[in-house]
Amino acid sequence: MPVDVARMTKVFERPKSLTEARYTYCPGCHHGVITRIIGQTIDELGIAERTVGIAPVGCSVFAYLWYRCDAVQVAHGRASAVATGIKRARPDLVVFSYQGDGDFASIGTAESLHAANRGENITVIFVNNQIYGMTGGEMAPTTLVHQKTTTTPDGRDPATCGYPIRFSEIIATLDAPVYVTRQALYDTRRIQDCTKAVKKAFQNQVDGKGYSLVEILSTCPTNWRMSPTQANEHVANVVTQVFPLGDLVDRG
Ligand SMILES: Cc1ncc(C[n+]2csc(CCOP(=O)(O)OP(=O)(O)O)c2C)c(N)n1
Question: Whose CA is nearest to atom 20 of ligand 1?
Fold first, then answer.
C-alpha cells in the first residue's frame, strides 16, 4: 500500500540544539542518550542562544561538536572550574558541564567538590559508567568491588583499591547545592525520569537557584565486555544496588 506522507504524524524529531555531526560513541553506550536529553532540554527551555557547554576529556570529549550552542573543551577534570569562570564572568549565560566519572570524581575531585560547595549557579551532568571508557577500560573511582577492568584484571580488591566512591552522596552533605540526583537510562521509565531531572537542573540555573548535579548511571558495553542488553540489565540489577537512584537533595 502506498504511504500517504501528508497524513503521517511526526513522532520523533532530532532536537534543534543538536548538530548533524556523527557521535563517536560505541553501540549501546548511554552517552548518546544523555547528549540527546540535554539537546531536547535546551530546545524546550529556549536557551540555545545563551547556553555554553563544557566538554571534558573522556568519551564525550567531542561534545562541543554535537551541540548547536557555544561550547568549550577543557582539560581532564577541570570542567566544573571552567564552568565557574564562565558563569561568574557572564551570569546571563546558562553553563553546563558534562563529565565522566574519572573526570568528575577522580582527577577533578577538588574542582568538582569546591564548585558544589561554593554553590556555583551551574548545571553539572555527571556520567557514571564505572570505568575509564575512552582510554581503554581502566578502573575508575566508581568501579564496583570485584569488577574486572584492564588495571584490575582480577577484579577490584578493596584491600588495595578501596571502594566505589558515591560522589553525589558526598556532595549531598554540603549546604549549598540545591539539587543532587542520581538517574539511570536502562528503560523508558528511567529515561523519562532522567529527562525531567535534567530539565529541572537547567531550570534551577535559569531561575538563579544555584548548583545542580545530575548523576546518570551509564553503560559501557565495550569495556564491560557485555552486549548492550546485558549492560542495561547490569545497570538495573547490579549497579543500582551500589548507586541507588533518586533525589539526594532538592532545595528547589
Ligand atoms: C591530565 C590528564 N590525565 C589523564 C588523561 C588520560 N585520560 C583521558 S580520558 C581518561 C578517562 C576518562 O574517563 P571518564 O572521565 O570516566 O570518561 P569516559 O571516557 O568513561 O566517558 C583519562 C584517564 C588526560 N587526558 N589528561
Answer: 133
Mean pLDDT of 205-226: 98
Distances from the Cα of 62 to the Cα of 27, 148, 168, angstroms: 17, 27, 25
Q: Is the CB of 222 under 6 A from ligand 1?
A: no
Task: Please give the distance, rounded to the nearest whole angstrom, from the Cα atom of residue 36 to the centre of ligand 1.
Answer: 22
Q: Whose CA is nearest to atom 2 of ligand 1?
A: 76
Write down how long the chain is: 252
Give the distance (Å) from ligand 1 centre to CA of residue 102: 6
Fold topology of 17-250: Rossmann fold (3.40.50)
Can you give the residue ranges of every domain in the chain?
17-250
Amino acid identity of residue 100, one-letter, is G
Q: What is the pLDDT of residue 10?
A: 82
Cβ distance 125 to 103 under 8 Å? no
What is the DSSP-derived secondary structure letter of residue 60?
T
Q: What is the rounded CA–CA span in Å between residue 167 and residue 227? A: 27
Triad 243, 244, 246: Cα angle to 5°? 130
103 lines ligand 1 (CB under 6 A): yes
Per-residue pLDDT, 58: 97
CA dist 170 and 163 (Å) reads: 14
Question: Which residue's C-alpha comes closest to atom 24 of ligand 1?
Answer: 76
Q: Residue with C-alpha cell 548511571?
A: 217
